[in-house]
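Hey,
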Amino acid sequence: MPTDRFDALTKHLDSIRARYPDRPLQVSLQHRGSGVDFSYGNQTADGAPRRFHTASIGKLLTATVIVRMIEAGRLDLKTPVASLLPVETLDGLFVLGGADHRDRVTVEQLLGHTSGVADYFAGIYGGRTRGQRFTDRVIAEPDHLWTPAELLACSRDTQKPVAPPGERFHYSDSGYVLLGMIAEGIDGASFGSVLDRWVFEPAGMSDSRLAFDTTGVLHELPAIDPVWLHGHEISGFTSLSCDWAGGGVLTTAEDLQRFNRFFWGEGVSGAHRAAMMHPRHRFHRGLWYGLGMMELRLGEFSWFLRRLPRCYGHIGVLGTHLWYDPASGCSIVINVGDTGAMNRSFRLLIRLLLGVMKG
C-alpha cells in the first residue's frame, strides 16, 4: 500500500473518529507480501498499548485451546462431551421432546455450533425479567458477576435446545461455556490460566488476559477502551463477565497480530487448521462457519467485491474483527467497540482489503 494510500486511510479514520468521538477506533493491518505494517489508534497518549474487549473473537482463542489439546492427545473431536463434564453440568441442556441427547454431543459439535444447545446470550427471559433480553440484564445489573454455571442455568431454566445434536447449526455462547469447562477439566486450572498456558504464552501475547476468571474478578484489571452495548458504555461493569469462554478476553491489536502469526505458523497443525477453516454452515450473508472459525466471502455482499480474498478469523458483536488471508499473508484487526456499528466496521474492513489489493 503506497504512502499516499496510508495518508488517505489515516484521514478517513480521522473523519470517523471526529464523527464518533466517544467510540473506540483501532486498526492494525499487516501484509507479508508488501511489508505493510499500518497501525491506527492502538496506543494511549503515553505510548502504552490500548486494550479492548474481544467479544466473540475470543471463540477462536477458545477453539485454538481445544484443538491444541487435541493435538496433545488429551481428547478428540469425536470425544463425547458427557465423558468430559460432570453429570450435573449437562442436566437439562440437551433434553428435547422428552429425550435427553447429552450422550450424542461431541466436542466437534460444540466447536461448530451444531450440538443443539440453546444460546443464553440471545435469550429472552421470563419471571421478574419477563420479556427481557440477556443483554438488557447485563446493562440493568452492572455489579453482577456471572459465573459459568449461572450462564448455563440461563439456557437450562428458560430455554430449550434447538435440535438434536448434529442436525442444525445454531450459534451458541452456551456451547462455548461448555468448551471452557472442558478445557478447565483437562488442564486442571481455571480458564484464565488455561488461555495463558495454551495460547497467550506460546503466542507471545503478553498484554492479553481473560477479564473475569472462573472464580471471580481478576485483581487489578487493566483499563480498556469503551464498550458500547445498545447505547450504554459498560467497560467498567462487572456484568461484562457474561462472555467468559465465548469472548471474555482483553487484548491489544498487536497481540491479536501475534496470535495470527502463531496460529498460521506453528500454533496449530495444517490438518487441524484445515478442519477449523472448512466452511460447514452459513452464519450470515458473507460469513460461513467452520470449527471456531469464520470464512469471509465479501463477494456475497456485492458482486463488485467478488475479487477480494476469502479471509479466515472471527468477528465479535462489538464490531471487533480478526482476519487473515492465507494466500497473501494479509492480517487485519479492527475494533470499533459498539454493537451499533457492525455495518461501519465491515465498510472499514472492505476499504482496507481494497487498499491492499490495489497496492
